[in-house]
Design brief:
Blueprint lengths: L1 E15 L5 E9 L2 E7 L1 H4 L3 E8 L5 H6 L6 E8 L11 E2 L9 E7 L2 E5 L1 H5 L36 E4 L2 E13 L4 E5 L9 E7 L5 E2 L6 H12 L2 H9 L2 H17 L1
Antiparallel strand pairs: 1-2, 1-12, 2-11, 3-4, 3-6, 4-5, 6-13, 7-10, 7-12, 8-9, 10-11
GO molecular function: rRNA binding; structural constituent of ribosome
Subunit structure: Part of the 50S ribosomal subunit. Forms a cluster with proteins L14 and L19.
Keywords: Ribonucleoprotein, Ribosomal protein, RNA-binding, rRNA-binding
C-alpha cells in the first residue's frame, strides 16, 4: 500500500537536526485533499481514485456537475490503485498520513527556461576564446558530416528548455507540521514557487480526517439578520425584487395621472 498527496511548493529554507547538522529543505504545503471520484473495474475497467486539491472561486458547468456536493477544486489528479475499498467520495486526508523519515518520490513540472543555446541546454563548452574565434564562443559548431547532406534527427542544438515533467526519487522527509499542513523535504524539489507537486511514499496507508465545518458563513448570516429589525427582514424575504419594481412603476403612473 502506498500513500500519496497533492501539494504546492512554497520555498526553500533550512532545518537543524537533533544531532546539530544543518539540512537544506523545501517547504511544501500538502493537502488537505478530497476524494472526488472512485473508479472501479466494473464501470471504468480499471481501479483508481480522483483527488481534488486547492480551491478557486468558480468552475464551468460540466465541472460543477462533476463536483456536485463538493468544493470548487483548482486541481484534479488521478491515482491508480489496486485496493480502493477504503476510498469513498467526499473523504478528506492531509499530512497526518506522513511522518518524519519517509522516503518520498515527487513529480512536478520543472521551471521553463525559454529558448536556450547549446551551452546552457546541453552543457557544450563552446569554442576556444583565442585568435580567430570572434562571436563564436557559445555557438554549436559543426552539426554533421558533408556526405549525408542533411542533419540527423536527435542532433543536440538550441531549443526550448524546461517545462518538463520531472520525477525525483529518494527524498527524505525531515519534518511534518500538521497544524499548517506543511512538509519539510530534504533537498530541492522540481518546479517553481506555487507549482503543483505530486508526492508518493511506499509503505503505510492514508489516514482520513474529518472535514472541517464552515462556521464563518453561518455566523456572518446570523449577525446580518440580527442587525436588522424583524419587520424589515420579513418584508425583504417575502417580497420579490420584481414585485417591488412593479409597485414603483404603479406609483409613478398614479402621480402622473393626478
Amino acid at each position: 500500500m502506498a500513500k500519496f498527496i497533492l501539494g504546492r511548493k512554497l520555498n526553500m529554507t533550512q532545518k537543524f537536526l537533533a544531532d546539530g547538522r544543518l539540512v537544506p529543505v523545501t517547504v511544501v504545503e500538502a493537502g488537505p485533499c478530497t476524494v472526488v471520484q472512485v473508479k472501479s473495474k466494473d464501470k471504468e475497467k480499471y481501479t483508481s481514485i480522483q483527488v481534488g486539491f486547492a480551491q478557486k472561486p468558480q468552475v464551468n458547468k460540466p465541472l460543477a456537475g462533476h463536483l456536485k456536493g463538493l468544493e470548487n477544486f483548482r486541481y484534479l489528479k488521478e491515482f491508480r490503485l489496486d485496493n480502493i475499498e477504503n476510498f469513498t467520495k467526499g473523504k478528506v486526508f492531509d499530512v497526518t498520513s506522513f511522518s518524519a523519515g519517509d522516503n518520498l518520490k515527487i513529480t512536478a513540472t520543472s521551471k521553463g527556461k525559454g529558448f536556450q543555446g547549446v551551452v546552457k541546454r546541453h552543457g557544450f563548452h563552446g569554442s576556444p576564446a583565442s585568435h580567430g574565434h570572434k562571436d563564436q564562443l557559445r555557438m554549436s559548431g559543426s552539426v554533421g558530416a558533408t556526405d549525408p547532406a542533411r542533419v540527423f534527427k536527435g542532433t543536440r542544438m538550441g531549443g526550448r528548455m524546461g517545462s518538463d515533467t520531472v520525477t525525483v526519487n529518494n527524498l527524505e522527509l525531515i519534518e511534518v507540521d500538521v497544524a499548517k499542513n506543511l512538509l519539510y523535504i530534504k533537498g530541492a524539489v522540481p518546479g517553481s514557487r506555487n507549482a503543483l507537486v505530486t508526492i508518493w511514499s511506499d509503505g503505510g496507508q492514508i489516514v482520513f480526517v474529518e472535514k472541517p465545518k464552515e462556521v464563518v458563513k453561518t455566523e456572518v448570516v446570523k449577525e446580518a439578520v440580527a442587525a436588522k429589525p424583524a419587520g424589515e427582514v420579513k418584508t425583504e424575504l417575502a417580497v420579490e425584487p420584481k414585485e417591488l419594481e412593479k409597485k414603483a412603476v404603479k406609483q409613478e403612473e398614479n402621480k402622473e395621472e393626478k
